[in-house]
Amino acid sequence: MLALAACALSQPVLARANAVGQQRTAPTRQQSQRMNxxxxxxxxxxxxxxxxxFKDVRTxxxxxxxxxxxxxxxAYSQYPWCGPSRASFLTGRRPDTTRVWDLKTMFRxxxxxxxxxxxxxxxxxxxxxxxxxxxxxxxPGDIGTSGPDDAPSWDRVVNPAGRDKINERDGRMTIFNPxxxxxxxxxxxxxxxxxxxxxQTDGKVATETIAMLKEQKDKPFxxxxxxxxxxxxxxxxKKYFDMYPLAKVRFQPEDDAHLARLLPxxxxxxxxxxxxxxxxxxxxxxxxxxxxxxxxDAQVGxxxxxxxxxxxxxxxxxxxxxxxxxxxxEHGQWEKQMLFEGSVKVPxxxxxxxxxxxxxxxxxxVELVDxxxxxxxxxxxxxxxxxxxxxxKPLLQNPRLRTWTHPAFSQVQGGRSVRVDRWRYIEWExxxxxxxxxxxxxxPAEHVNLASDSRYASVVARLKALLPKSSPGPRxxxxxxx
Length: 482
Known about the structure:
Elements: H1 2-9, E1 13-16, H2 29-32, E2 36-42, H3 60-67, E3 70-76, H4 82-91, H5 95-98, H6 107-110, H7 117-123, E4 127-132, E5 156-159, H8 163-167, E6 174-175, E7 189-193, H9 201-216, E8 221-226, E9 234-237, H10 238-242, H11 256-261, H12 279-307, E10 316-322, E11 327-328, E12 334-335, H13 341-344, E13 345-351, E14 360-362, E15 366-367, H14 371-378, H15 393-397, E16 408-412, E17 415-419, E18 423-428, E19 435-439, H16 457-464
Parallel strand pairs: 2-8, 2-10, 3-14, 3-15, 4-5, 4-8, 7-9
Antiparallel strand pairs: 1-5, 3-13, 6-7, 10-13, 11-12, 16-17, 17-18, 18-19
Helix pairs in contact: 3-12, 9-12
């Protein structure tokens, strides 16, 4: 039965998106000379990568992409949860505009006239293709299906499913916090699997993306490849676990004194602080996350390696990012939906062939909502309507541009955060449930909350004024965001 299932899962699931609006015509000569876009995104990837300077985790393929690109060291998700984040940056609108604050709401119901990022390219004569997870999909439940995808965005979609789908129920998974339903989407679960990279879902994402690049190499395209790791469950071939001997994985749990000082509201909607895992269990999961990250990186490398032989290395904009971060024990927390740095900060690498800023790091504050206007401008398309982010093209030409002083905003249920060069300021229910101020230069671990220290009252006042006055979203502790 497993063999039959593996055979079935090895076949990509193809679906043709329904055309909307006017029919696309064959590309003109001018269109065929436009820059292509290859959009690569990982799921739940934080900035613990060697490309971001965290040398404990090996991501050699992201390293080489970053080395020839602009590597944004301070990029932030607008909402550290898959559905709200992806609805935000794929429409170019903030969560309070999309009104997507959970995993159930479809943005087509709340902003029905929105034109998505890939849809905008499609309307402008580009082929648009998706492989894997771009819009929200439940993981691992929706792997192998389109899930709540957005059909008008795509000419073609591919929904790979690998042997990790079989592993969900074969009894070999280590699960530290089993859910009564058996769901693995938020479980600290992992498996050092047998078999090859290509047999895993992310391996198939890479294979199908390469095939799509080959098919579309002679016409303008927007191809998006959505990798599923390192979203839980952390499944990867055993060789990636072997890269991180357990005894050498550095992990130090937070001390009780620090945890006692935290605001209760700072745990967010679904804080994981009460798991009561042993130190060895926590270290084992950190190791699994690192292994899954390196496995995902290897698949990104396969896709990048395909560009030059296809003649696409000089006319293709490459973007790599994640939908949000992922906490690995910081503040006693695991996973996401919190406003700590590790939950909202994401890797962001953009390679624009010929950009003057390539081979440099930008430390300016940028947001995922900036991606839509950036890619439209870089591709030479008219600026789309309704954008709430800013094009990053000036930073692609000058990563240290002094006039770029924009803050970065993030939010969760009941909480709002603003990040500027030195500071992160957070309010819970407009301050009714407390506030947090962290000096990110001198306290990057966010251990000392300065919000009530009178010496920083002017800083608090300045940052408080930047936050939206109120939110139309769900209140802290409500049951509407599940």
